[in-house]
Amino acid sequence: MAREDPDRRRADRDPGPRRLRRTHRRRRVTGAAPRIAAFADRHIGTDAAAQRRMLDVLGYDSVDALVRTAVPAGIQVHERPTSDIPAAASEAEALAELRELAGRNRPGRPMIGLGYYDTLTPSVIARNVLENPSWYTAYTPYQPEISQGRLEALINFQTMVADLTGLATANASMLDEATAVVEGMLLVRRATRSASNVFLVDADALPQTKALLRHRAAAVGIELREVDFAAGAVEPVEAFGAFLQYPGASGRVWDPSATIEAVHGQGGLVVVAADLLALALLRSPGSLGADVAVGTTQRFGVPLGFGGPHAGYLAVRSGLERQLPGRLVGVSQDAAGHPAYRLSLQTREQHIRREKATSNICTAQVLLAVMAAMYAVYHGADGLRAIAADVARKAEVLADALRGYELPLVADAFFDTIRVSVPGRAEDVVHRARERGYQLLWVDEATVGVSVDETTTAADLAAVAAAFGLPETGDRRIEYAGAEPVRAVPAALRRDDAYLTHPVFSSHRSETAMMRYLTQLADRDYALDRGMIPLGSCTMKLNAATEMAAVSWPEFSRVHPFAPEEDVRGYLVLIEQLERWLAEVTGYDAVSLQPNAGSQGELAGLLAIRGYHRANGDLDRVVCLIPSSAHGTNAASAVLAGMRVVVVACDEAGNVDLGDLREKIAAHADELAALMITYPSTHGVYEHDVLEITQAVHDAGGQVYVDGANLNALLGYARFGDLGGDVSHLNLHKTFAIPHGGGGPGVGPVAAKAHLAPHLPSHPFSQRADHAGGVFDGGPISAAPHGSAGILPISWAYVRMMGTEGLRDATAAAVLGANYIAARLRDHFPVLYAGEGGLVAHECILDLRPLREKTGITVDDVAKRLVDYGFHAPTMSFPVAGTLMVEPTESEDIGELDRFVEAMIAIHAEAHAVAAGEWPADDNPLTNAPHTAESVVAGEWTHPYSREVAVYPVRSLVRTKYWPPVRRIDQAYGDRNLVCACPPPEAFA
Questions:
Q1: What is the CATH number for 831?
Q2: Which of 70, 485, 842, 978 has the most other CB atoms within 10 Å of its CB?
Q3: Phi, psi (5° rounding) for residue 879?
Q4: pTM for the structure as a whole
Q5: Is 871 within a domain?
Q6: Cis previous bond, 303, omega within 30
Q7: pLDDT at 12 (0 to 100)
Q8: What average pLDDT does the segment 289-295 reach?
Q9: Which domain holds residue 313?
């Protein structure tokens, strides 16, 4: 985590980057570096000539003058005399520096286990999903008509998880295993009738999960009791639920069915965390009586990535599906009656229920869930069973060899993990293994853990055995034939039911078929590789190929999150540099990269505030003030942090109502914990009273949380820490160029002032003391010490290639683009909110309610008609119902901006044509949108408008047309008729 002294580190930890910083500072002084690096020119879509055209429309002499008019003068910052961010590097230079950092990592052969395993990603999936912008630049499928490929992939994921867990319904992924366990705990708490606040936790659970449970349970008043379930113990008190690990962290495999029955007998429900690959051989949690199953799909072809991103999973028995957190993909039908996928039930429920929300999860791990699902499609049931059996046999062979040398095991029944008793020798064994290039788990002075996976070879087994003292040659060397039956899994727990029986898991086995299937799915989607996605509050900007390059390098991708410090020095330097850079641009003193989503960053920040107040003895400070316009996760996060939400009104201009704020502060002065405020506001304007707002909260003893969702409108011009912010989360998947991946991954770092730094996330397995819980006592917020570290090279490269000037210019270009669109569309669609000089920030809200009143055309009609014009719709009805929030970002060129403006003007004219009676109100291009190819080709055309008007409303589409695969989807039908697994092939006949 970044500290106040940026040069605190010892020279032997970071020799290279120090030299780099000094070199770049000299270049800046001598003027050798250009003002804007070549990369920034390519990242920012509008060049000088285009910006001049746009400024002429707005009446400003320069982009800087425009932004400095919009941003209140009292909060503006100017260039710092010195900076920890070096001058912008070229793409080649940045890649060379990343190569140097990668070279400091020593991936070795990770055999630590604890929920993380090396895996083999089929090349066809790596090339056509992970490295394919059609998949990684897509957005969350809130417009389902243009997200059918992604949604089908996710319903494959849900089917895979439901089949393997033996439960009725699975959601479309969770953030990781440990947070999925927390969500499972919260789910059973609200689903059970028990009045108890006790939750039983398996003593053999993963240690990172237990640490996360302790941190999260304390905030919501849940009492945890650890129980050695494998020893047959069941707590003789009423509990609302219990959590079991299957197999255990120790590798032990045991039959939990009696324990589950006992918990049920006391009125509780049971959550089981299950290894998904083990379930190819072991009886499913559902068959054992579990109510909820959770876990990770990481070992299904998703690289380790030093801890993430990985797709967690959560599945429930019948009757609990409406309690599911996160996203759920279901089957509905389109306007022609054809099957079509869409998000179901509690989609974005935190926006609807706000402080009554049961989860703050606002994202998933879609890209990684797609990879895991396609791993199952690629291998099928037989392939998964063969991989699982092979892994189990490798563990058995190693176990037999060790027992042959009188090295006892902690458990004789296991799947892929063994723990070996070596009294007094554990450290030596782990050291000897590391000398051979293998990372084992040092459990304690007397015990060493070893986990095998699909990548483990006979040579690996021999090397590990040698580390325990077995001879490397001779009659007793390790031999692995790979054909013996599995013996270490008890017969009573061996799986005998079928799974993955849907044809999708057996129809794409050849490389050709798999490649074509992935391409067909991608073709059904709309992503940034097709055109602009102008979503307000979401910042869909360029994800440059150079930024993405290092993600696939094995020195970054095949690293275990609990690897020893000496093996991950490159990662730690990259993390420290990125933390320091983010601290500088936000005006904070400390940064944690651990939260693996924006919602988790929010929660981490609020938990830090909670910890700070409790450390000061202010136990009654539990009220969190939140403006009525706030993002829905704000209220949900506050509740999960143990706070009580009090809503603050907004005025007609969209600003926080100062009078109402002061009244609420006075009414709750002794209870005030925090204010959550988004800056620029959720309405897309720079509030001029922000300093007065934050000071009023501080005067009352509260802390200020500044939501970082809109940082792309501020970077280089103002800093959260200077606004009076005490803590903020940042969205690396928005401002700092990490792709949205079709709805995830995300990274939501939390940044704070020094007084809150001790309460930021810690982790029991962190490689550095300042992240491990000694200095930082906040407890973990994610399963891995550094969250989704595998994608941090993207943001590192973005900042490194942009430099401070490039970051500022990106903000200016984004603000210019939003104001240009607002100015050109204001005469057709009122711009709902504006600040100084009638200017907006990086996004504008177009009010479509007057259009509906005059023409009957709704915001939904406009959004779907935009598809016919080749666009993804802006954000609909947030933060105001009946509006579109438009954010063009800095990456789009003026041609794309003009194309969008012209489409909106044309749609405005079409709506008025309906009002004038040229087309019937129930049969026109807008209410029938979007139009598929089938709809204009098949059968007789009976509509009062032409086929050309339907699908080619502008001539430029003739050669570049995106064809939606389905017509408008019936949302309500899908909720009334809930189907959340792969429909049979005949449904699409």
A1: 3.90.1150.10
A2: 842
A3: -85, 0
A4: 0.94
A5: yes
A6: no
A7: 37
A8: 98
A9: 139-375
